[in-house]
Amino acid sequence: MQTHAIGRRPVLAGVETLAPAYFGMVMATGIVSLASEQMGLPWLARGIFAINAVAYATLWALNLLRAVRFPRAFFADLTDHLRGPGFFTFVAATNVFGSQVVILTGRVAVAFALWFLSVGLWLVLTYAIFTALTVKEEKPTLEKGLSGAWLLAVVATQSIAVLGAILAARVGQPHRIELNFLALSMWLWGGMLYIWMMSLIFYRYTFFRFSPGDLSPPYWINMGAMAISTLAGSRLMLNAGDAPFLASILPFLKGYTVFYWATGTWWIPMLVILGIWRHVYRRFPLVYDPLYWGAVFPLGMYAVSTHTMIDALGLDFAPGFGFLTPVPDIFTWIALIAWALAFTALVRVILRQFMR
Predict the structure, then answer these.
(1) Exposed, middle or buried: residue 351 (CB in 10 Å: 0-12, 13-18, 19+)?
(2) Spatial separation of the C-alpha atoms in residues 81 and 160, rounded to whole Å
(3) What is the pTM of this model?
C-alpha cells in the first residue's frame, strides 16, 4: 500500500504542474507524420500516427485529471500571461490530429468530430483567455509577460482553416462552399492576429533587454505561425475550383500565401542565429523542456506548407527540376531528427521520474 502511494506521487506532481502547452507534442508529432507521408514514407507516417493517437488521448486524460484534481493550478494557468496562451495548443493539436485521421485513414466523420471539437475549444479559449488577460488587475510588464507562445493563438486559428479546407474538398455542396468560406474567414483573421502580435514581439525583441533565458523555444512559433498560414492559403487555392468566391480572389490568395511563406522563411536564419547565441555563445544549458515541441512543430509545418504551396502554385512545372522541390524533403528530415531527439528526451524524463 505504501509502495503504491509512493509510486503515485511523481505522477500526481507531474499532473499538477503539467504545462498547458504540452499538446505541442501532438502538434509536432502529427505534422512530422504528415510530412513523412508527403515525402513518400507511408510506413513511417503511420507509425508516428499511432504514437500520436496515444499521446493525444493521454494528454486529454491528464489535463482533465488536472482540471478536476488541481482546479486552482489549472485555472491559474488559464489567466497567466506566459502560460495561458499554451492552452491554444489544445485547438491546434486537435486539428493536426484530425488532419492525420482524414489524410492517413480517410475517416472523414472522425475528422469532422475533431474539427467541431476544435471550433468549440477555440471559441471558449479565445474569449476566456483574452478577456481574463484584459480585465485582471495585476499584469506583468511587456518584457515579462510576452513571448512567442502568444502566437499559438494564430496557429490555433489557422489550424481550423487548414482542417476546414481539407474537409471541404471531401463533402458535397452546399457544405463545401460553407466550409471554404469559414476557412477563408479564419485564414484572414489569423493573418491579422499575427500582425498585431508580431508587432509587439518584435518591439519586445529590439527595445528591451534580452537574456538567453528569455529566448524560449516557443519563439520558433514566429516562423511556425507563418508556415501554417501558408498551408491554409495553399489549401484554399487548391479548393478555388469548388468555390466561386475563392476563384474570384485567387490572385489575392496567391499573393498573401507567398507573403506568409516568405516571412516564415526569413525567420529561419534569424532563429538559428539566436539559438547559436543562446546555447553556444552564452552557454545556456540544453535540457529537455516540453516547450521544445514548439520548436519541432514549425520545422515540420514548414516542410508540409512548402510542399503544398508548390502544388497550389504549380511551381513544380518539371518533375525533379522545380527550384523549391528539395526544400520540403530537407526540412522533413530536419523535423524528424528534431522530433526523435525531443521524444527520446521525454522518454528519459519519464523513466527517471518513475525510478526515483
Answers:
(1) exposed
(2) 23
(3) 0.92
